[in-house]
Amino acid sequence: MTPSRLQFTGELHTAAEHIHVEGITMSAKNRRDSVGSYDYLTLEGVITAVRVLKTKAGKLMAFVKVNCQDGPAELVFFPAVYLANSEAFLIGSRIKVKALPDCDEKGKVTYLVDAVVV
Question: What is the dihedral of CA 115, 118, 19, 76, to 10 degrees?
Fold first, then answer.
């Protein structure tokens, strides 16, 4: 299963339940807001759009759209990761990241970036 094609197929109600993403089951411990190990994916693609926002704390973060081998994906760069890699966000350039898939209540999958892989 290619990471850019993952789709949410369940709901997370309690910490004991699981999120099901085609071919991958992530328990609540795999989410950033919980304690435990993470199941990171490596994504690589061409940047097609960059949206930089300022947080309530006044720090910059970015939402980056990429075209991976099997389709589009949205990457989220929180302030610390954005600051360390802001020069990498050029439309048309290739980027490779280590990220954690995250699903919202509507089933939209985004990838929370932990690091840019060189």
Answer: 50
Whether the Cβ atoms of residue 102 and residue 112 lie closer than 8 Å to each other: yes
> At 27, is the secondary structure helix, strand, or coil?
strand
Q: Which domain holds residue 101?
A: 3-116
Q: Are 65 and 101 in contact (CB under 8 A)?
A: no
Handedness of CA 2, 42, 57, 103 (dihedral sign): positive
According to DSSP H, which parts of the chain are helical?
79-85
Q: What pLDDT digit, counting tens, does each position of 24-39 carry?
A: 334 333 444 433 455 7
- Find the CATH number of the domain harbouring 67: 2.40.50.140
3-state class (DSSP) for residue 87: helix
CA distance 91 to 10: 34
Q: Measured on CA atoms in the order 87, 89, 92, 93, is the torsion positive or negative?
A: positive
Based on the structure, what is the number of domains in the chain?
Answer: 1
Say if pTM beats, i.e. exceeds, 0.85. Answer: no
